[in-house]
Amino acid sequence: MYFLPAMRRTQMASRFVLAAFALLVTGSIPAADEPASTQLERGKLLYQKHCFICHQLNGQGLPGVYPPLAKADYLLQDLDRSIRVLIEGLSGEIRVNGRRYAGAMQPVLISDAEIADVLTFVRGSWGNAASSVTADQVAEVRKKTPFKTFEALVAGSAYPPLPPAPEGFTLREVVRMPSNPLRIASDGSGEVLYVLTGGNGDVWRVDPKSGVVRQLLRGDQYLEKRPDDVGGPVILVAMIMDKERRLYVGVNQQNRKTLPVQNIVTVYRTTAFKGGDPVDPKPWFQTNYHGNFAYLHGLEGMAFSPDGYLYLANGARTDSNQGGGEPEYYGKGETELTSAIWKVDPKQDHPVLEIFAKGIRNGYGLCFNESGELFESENGPDAHAPEELNHIEKGKHYGFPYQFADWTKKAYSHTPDAPAGLQFTLPIVNLGPDGGYEGKPIYSFDPHSSPGGMTFLGDDFPEGWRGTLLMSRFGNFIRQPKTDCGFDVLQIQLKKNAQGVYESRVKTALFPLGRPNDVHVSGRGKIYISEYGRATNSAGSYTLPGRIIEMAVKPSKP
Fold first, then answer.
1. Crossing angle of helices 79-88/135-142, nearest 10°?
2. Which long-range contacts (CB under 8 A, 24 or more apart) does 40-44 make?
3. H-only helix segments in 417-484
4. Which of 210, 287, 314, 465 could form a disulfide with 461 if both were Cys (CB 3.0 to 4.6 A apart)?
């Protein structure tokens, strides 16, 4: 299933931003007999306002980063596709004139007439000699998108109102982020938040009290650069801070030079402080395994245990262990390092990887409770199996790719038989009333609801909340078997049954939200939620940057 990036296919997770601004401007439809030179002039002005920062005034782009528009086959071969890119945005890997580009372009909030103008200019400049474009052509393409009209897109691009706060809490908007937030980290004091955004490795410093945000780290300055013919898309969805206030940023990138194509997993760790903030990230841990041209969940979740070890959820390289048909790629299923929970020691300069548990498809959220027990939120397959919440214990196997949730049937015809004697640990059962429960237990949540980041609520929270987990759900892209699910934050109460196995009671804490993907406790009784985008349902655009929200315990009355 899809999740951003994370959260989940390669196409959704790579986030080099190809368009720097998405501004709303108004325009008028040109008269039918208007001279072509007038439309070209308007298009040139629009290009200079919206496009040149990335694609340059000469349309050449930046090699390996922003694709060219001059004599670009991707642009000129398919007019409808070019129109859709401006209307819907673009994410994932494309080829332009034989070169690979991987990223995301925000929708450009301009009218049908203005899209026609700017495309007419681009298609007739820098050696391009394609036909002009009309507003009617744009309108016809727009009808096939989730937002049928420009007005609907503008309305859908607005920040949604905050949902009702749970009883005993307040809810407020802290800051509107300049790029899509992925992860929140802090030292727990509540004084400063650090937010990983986009997929380009940028980290922003947020003051929760004032709402002031400024860029702390730039991905293009610290990420290892690979030539375009060697390096594939860069995927970042993991960040955490240790007790020494060092930031760890997890990165996945393919290496296409060594065949079969390899996925390189690198954890960068800051090495210095400037003005009290962690800076100067350097590669600290790195490993690799066979990549995949379609699925690559890679490193997504990270958590520190109470005894100081770092645990990493490294997901599957397939949807369900299927083979591949691309000659450059490993043609089989999972490897020893994939679909696993890793354990490494931060005290080591060159840590050794330990496989802690197996059978994990796509672990976005990792979280420890007060007893040092580890829990993991997991996204399921494109088949309509429930999403999972797992209690992770050393040496256990959690089913993937042989079993999903509590299913006894095979998810696909190609699902392999489990090795003889291999025992699976079931996900934690959800006994309701929310999160996918419909009168009977479910293991664990609605299919395709995309469980995200989790956090444990300790003694700073009131009775009824203390000792529970909070988990974000990014929301579905696949609109089966339900129209919409997720777009919320769930409260999860865990209790062991007579057999010593955890069961859960699940309640909705916040709904609806704009594709929330992380929750983080920092400060006394304060929870911070990252909204990746602004859409509170699957019909909306997920690409426009979201915000950080604070949910705080109300002060007790004197």
1. 70
2. 40/120, 40/121, 40/124, 42/114, 42/117, 42/121, 43/117, 43/118, 43/119, 43/120, 43/121, 43/122, 44/121, 44/125
3. none
4. 465
How confident is the model at residue 267, as a pLDDT? Answer: 97
Which pair of structure tokens corresponds to residue 75?
A: 């642009």
Q: What does pTM read for this prediction? A: 0.78
Query: Could you give the CA distance from residue 276 to residue 262 in angstroms, rounded to a whole number?
Result: 37
State which of 125, 156, 187 marks the end of a domain: 156
**Residue 106 belongs to domain with CATH number:** 1.10.760.10
Do 98 and 217 belong together in one domain?
no
Q: Which secondary-structure segment (H or E) carries 133?
A: none
Torsion of CA 458, 461, 466, 470, to 10 degrees: -80
Q: Residue 156: enclosing H or E segment and its boundaries?
A: helix 150-156
Identity of the residue numbered 27: G
Residues facing 252 on adjacent strands: 235, 265
Residues of the chain falling short of pLDDT 50: 1-33
Specify if 558 maps to a domain: no
Domain assignment of residue 56, given as a range: 25-156
Nearest to 197 by CA among 249, 246, 244, 157: 249
pLDDT of residue 255: 85
- The 3-state DSSP class for residue 263 equals strand
Residue 11: per-residue pLDDT: 28
